[in-house]
Write a structure and sequence with these properties.
Blueprint lengths: L7 H8 L30 E2 L12 E6 L6 E10 L6 E4 L9 H6 L1
Antiparallel strand pairs: 1-2, 2-3, 3-4
């Protein structure tokens, strides 16, 4: 095919060094496999989130037991309002602990 005009995008691509040397680069459409990172567990084998600033009880995070495969949910942590005095407090188990330490010590 004589007299064929090279498109401008192809000229620019070759000038950048992408394909001007005549070498063919092997490109895979599949990403390389990266082994999944296991979360860092504490001494008991639980992954516990760090307490975050008070958000009014909107956010809940799961505590995972990584000794099981797949990891299982042990409890749920987050900010809670005390059912007695209504003050916000950090609860290590939002499903079971409903009173702050001050109110639970009175009982």
């Amino acid at each position: 095919m004589t007299g064929a005009v090279t498109p401008p995008w192809l000229v620019a691509w070759r000038e950048r060094g992408q394909g001007g040397s005549g070498e063919t680069a092997t490109v895979s459409a599949v990403a390389e496999a990266v082994p999944p990172q296991r979360p860092k567990a504490n001494v008991q084998g639980f992954v516990e989130p760090v307490p975050w600033p008070d958000d009014g009880g909107k956010r809940r995070e799961k505590v995972l037991d990584v000794d099981h495969n797949p990891p299982r949910v042990v409890r749920v942590v987050g900010w809670q309002r005390c059912m007695t005095c209504r003050k916000p407090f950090w609860s290590d188990d939002t499903r079971r602990i409903r009173m702050c330490r001050d109110c639970s010590d009175l009982r």
